[in-house]
Design a protein that fits this description.
426 residues, alpha/beta, Aminopeptidase, Alpha-Beta Plaits, six-stranded mixed β-sheet, four-stranded antiparallel β-sheet, 10 helices, elongated, hydrolase, metal ion binding, Acetylornithine deacetylase or succinyl-diaminopimelate desuccinylase, cobalt
C-alpha cells in the first residue's frame, strides 16, 4: 500500500507548490507579529474543508500580544474511525524580517527553477505545506485509519515560542493522552532526523556606575569601563574554557559541538535613550550586556551560570567600585530524544524507503519549539524533520526545493502509516 501512498503525494505536487507559495505571501514577520490571524485562518479554512475540527487560540497576555498584533494559533484535529495514537505536526507560521540583499520580492512566493522563493520558504512554510500534503495523501489512501492526526500553525517561535507552543502546552494541547507523537517540520534536511537541541541560557548583565559631567569623569564612575573589564575577562578566561568543552551529542555543524557564548548586545550611556544620534555629556552610570550561552548535555545549568558569576564576583572584589546585577531572560535544558523512540523509528523507516539509506541523526545548534513540548507538555516522543537546508534560513533569497518537499512529504506519510497503522504497515 505504500506505493499508493507515494502516488497520492505525487498527485498533489502542484497543490504542494501552490500551498507553499500562498503561505509565503502572508508576511508573518516577527517582530512585531504581522498577519498572524489571516495566515492561521487560511490554514484553518483549508483543513476544515478536509474534515478537520479547527480551533483558533489567541495567546492573550503573552509577550507582544496586542489587539493590533494578536498572537493567534491554529490547531486542527481529525479523529480516525477507531481509537489509537495521535500524531501531531507542529509548524511555526512566523518568519524573521526580510532584511536587505534580496534579488526578488521576499513575500511574492515566486516559483522558479524547481524552487519556491521567499522569506519563510524553508523556515518553515515549506515544512508546514509538506505536512499538510502528507496528511491529506494518507487520509485518502487509508480513510479507515485508527487514532488521530493534528496539524498546528503556531506563532512566535522565532522569539522564543511563548505566544505559540509554550502557551498551547500550558493549556494541555501537547500532553498525553491528547497527543502521543510530535513531528516538527523544521528545515534540517530531508534525509536527517533532528533528535533535539543544545541548552540555552540568556541573561542580561548590568554594570553600575555614577553619573557625572563628561568633562570631569574623575568625579563619576564609568559603567562602560566596568563592562570593558567584564568583556576582557570573558575573552581571556571564559571563551577559551568554553572552546575546550566538546559534546557526544551529534550537533551540526561541527563548531556547535563545543560550548558557545554570543554577546548579543551592549548598551551603555544615555545616547540611545536621550536625543538618539547626539552625544551625551555625561559619565554613563549603567551599561547592559546581553549574553546568549549555548551549552551541552554534559553541562549542568548551575555550573554554566557560575562560570559567568564567578568572574563577576571576582571583579567585584578586585576592581574598585565595581558592582553588577544579572537577570535571567530564558533557560532551556538540552534535549535529545532516544533513537529507539517510536517517532524516530517511524520517520527513519520513511527515510530508508525513500532514500534507500539510514538517516543521519543530528542535534540542532539552537533551540526550537521542542523545548516547550518536553518541558511543559512532557511529551518526549518528539523530533524535528522537514524539507529545506538550515543554512538558507533567515538569509536573502531564501528558498525551498520542490523535490525536497515532495520527498519529505512522502517520508512524513510513511511515518504516519507506521505510527497509526503499525510498524511496517503496508
Amino acid at each position: 500500500m505504500n506505493e499508493l501512498l507515494l502516488k497520492a503525494v505525487d498527485d498533489r505536487v502542484d497543490d504542494l507548490v501552490t500551498l507553499t507559495a500562498e503561505l509565503i505571501r502572508f508576511p508573518t514577520i516577527n517582530p512585531p507579529g504581522e498577519a498572524y490571524r489571516p495566515c492561521a485562518e487560511y490554514v484553518g479554512a483549508r483543513l476544515k474543508k478536509r474534515g478537520f475540527e479547527v480551533e483558533f487560540i489567541r495567546a492573550e497576555g503573552t509577550p507582544g500580544d496586542t489587539d493590533r498584533y494578536p498572537r493567534v494559533n491554529v490547531v486542527a484535529r481529525f479523529a480516525g474511525r477507531s481509537p489509537g495514537a495521535c500524531v501531531h505536526f507542529n509548524s511555526h507560521i512566523d518568519v524573521v524580517e526580510a532584511g536587505d540583499g534580496w534579488s526578488l520580492d521576499p513575500f511574492a512566493g515566486i516559483v522558479r527553477g524547481g524552487k519556491v522563493y521567499g522569506r519563510g520558504a524553508c523556515d518553515m512554510k515549506g515544512g508546514l505545506a509538506s505536512s499538510i500534503i502528507a496528511t491529506e495523501a494518507f487520509m485518502e489512501v487509508f480513510p479507515d485509519f485508527p487514532g488521530a492526526i493534528e496539524i498546528s500553525g503556531t506563532v512566535d517561535e522565532e522569539s522564543g515560542g511563548f505566544g505559540g507552543v509554550a502557551h498551547l502546552a500550558k493549556l494541555g494541547y501537547f500532553s498525553k493522552p491528547k497527543v502521543d507523537h510530535v513531528i516538527i517540520p523544521e528545515p534540517l534536511n530531508k534525509d536527517r532526523i533532528c533528535l533535539g537541541h543544545r541548552g540555552v541560557w540568556w541573561a542580561e548583565i548590568e554594570t553600575k556606575g555614577e553619573i557625572a559631567h563628561g568633562s570631569m569623569p574623575f568625579l563619576g564612575d564609568n559603567a562602560v569601563r566596568h563592562m570593558g573589564a567584564v568583556l576582557r575577562a570573558f575573552e581571556d578566561e571564559l571563551f577559551p574554557a568554553l572552546d575546550r568543552k566538546v559534546t557526544r551529542m551529534p550537533v551540526v555543524p561541527d563548531g556547535a559541538k563545543r560550548s558557545t557564548m554570543n554577546i548579543n548586545s551592549v548598551h551603555g550611556g544615555q545616547t540611545e535613550d536621550f536625543r538618539p544620534g547626539l552625544p551625551s555629556p555625561n559619565v554613563p552610570d549603567s551599561c547592559r550586556l546581553t549574553i546568549d550561552r549555548r551549552f551541552l548535555l554534559e553541562e549542568d545549568l548551575g555550573t554554566v551560570k557560575s562560570e559567568v558569576t564567578d568572574i563577576l564576583d571576582r571583579l567585584k572584589r578586585e576592581r574598585k567600585k565595581f558592582d553588577y546585577e544579572i537577570r535571567d531572560l530564558m533557560e532551556v535544558l538540552p534535549l535529545m530524544t532516544e533513537r529507539d523512540a517510536p517517532v524516530v523509528k517511524a520517520v527513519a523507516q520513511g527515510i530508508m524507503e525513500i532514500f534507500d539509506r539510514e538517516p543521519d541523526y543530528v542535534i540542532s545548534p539552537g533551540t526550537y519549539d521542542q523545548k516547550h513540548i518536553a518541558r511543559i507538555g512532557h511529551i518526549y516522543d518528539c523530533i524535528a524533520y522537514g524539507p529545506g537546508i538550515l543554512d538558507l534560513a533567515h538569509r536573502p533569497d531564501e528558498w525551498v526545493g520542490i523535490s525536497d518537499m515532495v520527498e519529505s512529504a512522502k517520508v512524513m506519510a510513511i511515518g504516519l502509516n507506521v505510527l497509526l497503522r503499525g510498524t511496517g504497515a503496508r
